[in-house]
Amino acid sequence: MAVLIDPPSWPGHGRLWSHLVSDVSYAELHAFAARIGAPRRGFDRDHYDVPSELYAEAVRAGAEEVGSKELLRRLKAAGLRRPKRAANAD
Q1: Helices vs strands, H then E, count in the chain
Q2: Where would a tag sit more exposed on the chain, N or C end, judged by fewer CB atoms within 10 A?
Q3: Three-state SS for 50?
Q4: CA angle, 25 then 60 then 16, to 5°
Q5: How many whole angstroms separate alpha carbon 31 and alpha carbon 46?
Q6: What pLDDT, in 10s, does the model give residues 10-59?
Q7: Helix, strand, coil tally for the chain in percent (to 5)
Q8: Pairwise CA distance, residues 87 & 66, whole Å
């Protein structure tokens, strides 16, 4: 039962990004993100996109550092994964 963060290795908008998730609830995730100063607009379906500048703050605040595969495994195991919908094949 934790908030998890993967290494900042996802490029976008000239920065590197991490994913921040909870394996407990979205409420826990939103509260944690607010505590570290991650804006609500960074929430994407089931995770926050967190810029590398906030990575150390997230870890100091108690986020567990895990690899991307472990983060996804634990998010799925918690039943909190919300995958993108597939585009219609029309």
Answers
A1: 3, 6
A2: C
A3: strand
A4: 80
A5: 14
A6: 999 999 999 999 999 999 999 999 999 999 999 999 999 999 999 999 99
A7: 35, 25, 40
A8: 30
**Does this model's pTM top 0.85?**
yes
Rounded Cα gap, residues 51 and 25, in angstroms: 22
Paired tokens of 16: 């590197």
Per-residue model confidence as pLDDT tens digits over 62-78: 999 999 999 999 999 99
| Largest Cα–Cα separation, the chain | 48
Rounded Cα–Cα distance for residues 71 and 22 (Å): 9
SS3 61: coil
- End-to-end alpha-carbon separation of the chain, Å? 41
Token reading at 31: 């509260």
β-sheet bridge partners, residue 64: 4
Q: Look at the chain and count its residues.
A: 90
Q: Name the token pair of 62.
A: 């108690």
